[in-house]
Amino acid sequence: MDILSHVLVSPNVTRVACGKNRTPLLAPDTIVVHYTGGGDARSSALYLADPATKASAHVVIARDGQVFQLVPFNVRAWHAGVSALEGRTNVNAFSFGIELANAGRLTRRDDRWFTWFGTEIPGEEVCTCRGREGVTYWHAYTPLQLRVAARVCQLLAKYYPVCRLVGHADITSRKQDPGPAFPWEAFRNMVGNLPRRSKSGEAS
Fold it and tell me: Taking all residues of the chain, what is their mean pLDDT, rounded to a whole number?
């Protein structure tokens, strides 16, 4: 996998037409990780690419490692919404949006787990989490999905001035993705150290 002319190039990458995004993305220094909170990656990508949908993302990564690219990396996507990070608002203006196909929070009924849209999730795909709300259940990410996402992050850091990796919940209190099932420590280890950059944007 590589990036050529702001587009991922690999046999496992499919381009999805998304003509609604046209504003240039200048000096993006942040990657924002999301979950789709929906069905499979293809349907999520088509939904985000729909001109009637007031949201989009640069890429959607399937549970089997397939990648759908909607927006070139030199164009802003509408993934952050009303957001702020380290004193800057409008995070869309300086970030990439990576969506991972994942149903998010699940509901338990006896010994079965269901998405908010009614699909049953097998027990081996369920992550049990304990926090302020007590025990909650979440859709687990797949190892292959995480490896592919990490590779995309590495490439973005190689070709663009990326120095931050955050979740959607880090930039707005409205959202909770990628959720407690996302293995941040392991994922950051897979991505490796992002370059530190000076105020001039030069890597150090």
Answer: 94
